[in-house]
Automatic annotation (TrEMBL):
PANTHER family: ALANINE RACEMASE, LACI-RELATED TRANSCRIPTIONAL REPRESSOR. It comes from Caulobacter vibrioides OR37. This is Transcriptional regulator, LacI family. PROSITE patterns: HTH_LACI_1, HTH_LACI_2. GO terms for molecular function: DNA-binding transcription factor activity; transcription cis-regulatory region binding. SMART domains: HTH_LACI (SM00354). The keyword DNA-binding applies. Keywords: DNA-binding, Transcription, Transcription regulation.
């Protein structure tokens, strides 16, 4: 049977296309229909119930887009990944995929869509263009890359923005991220405790987070006796990392412990060592960073510094929502932990 409608209505028997048509059918104002369907404002229980029942009978669902236009919102949050220092890196990188999925889930829980952008910066205004596009209510930036100056520039005029990355003194933007220096020190101290004396750090310190991990690596070496450390700049892109690491291992003499700046680099390290006939952990012990799910499934399972990315995603979204409400929102520093496994001869095997 067709839905019942008010006799004499011009839209009798038809499904209303907007709240204005529903208001005409109900014989009330558009504002009354809006209050009834959103639960906002003052309205008698009887009127609210009557309009909600009529909307259900007519299978009417209010337009989210129209509502967002009325209140000056888009209902979307920009999730932006800048790749200034690593232009060939892909969003399929396990770290990006893991953190972005957690962020998207948290945003959905709060009623927002995630608008994902991978940006290879071509000028200093790329972030301003996103902020001023009118397409998003706020921005979550995944990683600082080499774009700290651009982030600062935008943060001075655009408040609802939060960045996953390192806290850098004097910068204007809000951050959520792990204590990377502490994590780097923990990883290196673990290698030293496992008997390693000639260590190498694999990673690109042009990214602030990696630079902090390198500082922690050096802190631990300086505090130890009889331990040497070397730096090998390595790309995050797997095949490029594998080539660089393999070339290094061909000339490196006696390296017995490697701290890789990411789990992806650590996996390429284990592969390069195997290709050269060097056993992990018997000949060389390897530690990664991030402790992604894949770390448990390498051969051998990878010791890694764990970042709680689910907790980090929640902090990113909570901080952004506070900024959207024009509330104070301090930056968040997460404490990493070490997950020891067989790649260093410890923990799970």
């Amino acid at each position: 049977m067709p839905p019942k409608t008010r006799p004499g209505s011009k839209t009798a028997g038809a499904r209303p296309q907007n709240i204005q048509e529903l208001a005409r059918i109900a014989g009330v104002s558009t504002a009354t229909v809006s209050r009834a369907l959103t639960g906002a404002g003052h309205l008698s229980a009887a009127t609210r119930e009557r309009i909600q029942k009529l909307a259900a009978e007519l299978q009417f669902k209010p337009s989210t887009t129209a509502r967002n236009l009325r209140i000056g919102r888009t209902g979307a949050i920009g999730v932006v990944v800048p790749l200034g220092h690593e232009r060939t890196q892909h969003l399929s990188d396990p770290f990006f995929m893991t953190l972005i999925s957690h962020v998207a889930d948290r945003l959905a829980d709060q009623g927002y869509d995630a608008l994902l952008s991978r940006v290879v910066p071509s000028d200093g205004d790329w972030l301003d263009r996103i902020a001023q596009s009118g397409r998003v209510d706020g921005i979550i930036v995944i990683g600082q890359s080499d774009q700290a100056r651009v982030l600062d520039q935008t943060a001075k005029t655009y408040r609802p923005m939060v960045v996953w990355g390192s806290q850098i003194a004097g910068h204007a933007y809000h951050t959520v991220g792990s204590d990377n220096r502490l994590g780097g020190r923990m990883a290196t101290e673990h290698l030293i405790a496992q008997g390693c004396r000639k260590l190498a750090f694999f990673g690109d310190p042009n990214a602030p987070e990696v630079e902090e991990r390198l500082r922690g690596f050096r802190d631990a070496i300086e505090a130890a006796e009889g331990v040497a450390g070397a730096l090998l700049p390595v790309h995050f892109v797997p095949q490029m990392a594998l080539t660089t690491i393999s070339d290094y291992l061909g000339i490196a003499d006696g390296v017995d412990g490697i701290f890789a700046a990411s789990d992806t680099i650590a996996m390429m390290t284990i592969q390069a060592l195997a290709d050269r006939g060097r056993a992990v952990p018997a000949d060389v012990k390897v530690v990664g960073f991030d402790d992604l799910d894949v770390a448990r499934h390498t051969l051998p399972p990878l010791t890694s510094v764990r970042q709680d990315l689910d907790k980090g995603a929640k902090a990113l979204v909570d901080t952004l929502l506070a900024l959207l409400r024009d509330e104070d929102a301090p930056s968040v520093l997460l404490t990493p932990t070490l997950a020891p496994r067989a790649s260093t001869g410890a923990g799970d095997r």
